[in-house]
Amino acid sequence: MFIDHEYIEKILEEAKKATKEEINAVLERAKKRDGLSYEDIAVLLQAEDEEDLKEIYKLAGEIKDSIYGKRVVMFAPLYVSDYCVNNCVYCGYQRCNEFGRRKLTMEEVREEVKILEKMGHKRLALELGEDPVNAPIDYVVECLDTIYKTQNENGEIRRVNVNIAATTVENYKKLNEAKIGTYILFQETYHKPTYEKMHPKSIKGDYNYHLTAFDRAMEAGVDDVGAGVLFGLADPKFEIIGLMMHNKHLEEKFGVGFHTISMPRLKPAKGMTLEQFPHIVDDDMFKKLVAIVRIAVPFTGIIMSTRETAEMRRELLKCGVSQLSAGSSTGVGGYKDREEGKEVSQFKTSDERTPLEVLKGVLDDGYIPSYCTACYRKGRTGERFMTLAKSGEIQNMCEPNAMATLLEFALDYGDKEILEKSEKVISKEIENIKREDIKNVLKSNLEKLRKGQRDLYI
Ligand code: SAM
């Protein structure tokens, strides 16, 4: 097993004794951006001095700016089934919870997708509970097909990431053939004893099977995988080193590690209360964790959901987050239900703003909300993506594509204010594009978008 518990505990203990000089030396190494050792990461995790923390946030912000520029990728989750055979202690869908469970028919999937398209979304995360009888892999594949085929005036979903339970190579092959974007699976906790306690008597209770899910996905040809930890279950410092070990394992075995890391914090849900969990992560610690992940894996996207408040998400964008969800519902059929005032959710969300409101906030802070899905559609995935990202070449595509998709959003779904704010950000940022040929392609694409063409990307 590649999560060496004893070793993690040992280096975390030793790092408690790190001096200011040692912390500075780690930060100096981190500035070179070619990754840190587990011991280095442990030192940063144990840092508590205000000055050291400021340095960590500053470096995380600089790394983020230089790699991601001003871009923030936008997406929304789509819950299609809450049937679940597992009994995860923290989850509203645990099988012991009694409520009217449902899964969407394809007609209902189309209705949800149309609502999401009207919000301007182009990128979804498909979510469902684990139930091989009520929601088998063929159901997931059918959902993917339905989503991609659901056109709405000038809208369509261009990338669907899938967050479903660990499964077999055969099933991952089916997902791959159905054109999933990233396969997302949260380890929940890397700490085996806690994992087993949190997932009693269930399919999901097999730690090793869950931990090796990405190995099977990659064997099946899925080359973008997105990891995550549910913060609140075990010691968060242990979890960060666990994430890094998992990432390294995939890099060594398949040549590429995580495409993204999601950082959900535990929220109240049906059948549980936060008091049951002794490792709840407070805001200061959470900010530190996000910054350290950004420093440790500069080229891996960090995803922040609406579990966090608007203020927290704003703060976290400054120290590493690169993707935000907006306007999310975490209930099956939740988007239609919300229109009818009867939404039921998997857990409580904290940022209830509409996508337009989220976008205004993001634009006001000088970022470029991006609806780009070009890499995936152009085959820039897995190792190919990472090579382009690490050489910096990806900037020539991401930056212009972000601006083009922002303008497309503003023209189709924005109000006057969004359009003005978007035009302002674009006219400023276009001047920062260094390559004249790229700048010219973008200018021409923006003009074409204003004249009614859509879906233009490099
Ligand atoms: N059922 C799938 C699986 O087994 O991996 C994943 C889908 S589930 C809808 C997505 C994620 O929601 C879970 O992996 C878990 O981390 C998170 N989640 C569950 N309960 C939560 C809670 N109370 N607060 C915050 N996140 C929660």
From TrEMBL:
Cofactor: [4Fe-4S] cluster
SMART domains the UniProt entry points to: BATS (SM00876)
Region of interest (Disordered), ranges: 330-349
Protein name: Biotin synthase
Gene: bioB_18
GO MF entry, a single one: metal ion binding
A Pfam short name: BATS
Enzyme Commission number(s) from the entry: 2.8.1.6
Residue ranges of every copy of the Biotin and thiamin synthesis-associated domain listed in the record: 262-369
Basic and acidic residues bias spans: 335-349
Broad EC category: transferase
UniProt keyword terms in alphabetical order: 4Fe-4S, Iron, Iron-sulfur, Metal-binding, S-adenosyl-L-methionine, Transferase
GO BP: any one term: water-soluble vitamin biosynthetic process
InterPro entries linked to this entry: Aldolase_TIM (IPR013785), BATS_dom (IPR010722), FeFe-hyd_mat_HydG (IPR024007), rSAM (IPR007197), rSAM_sf (IPR058240), ThiH/NoCL/HydG-like (IPR034428)
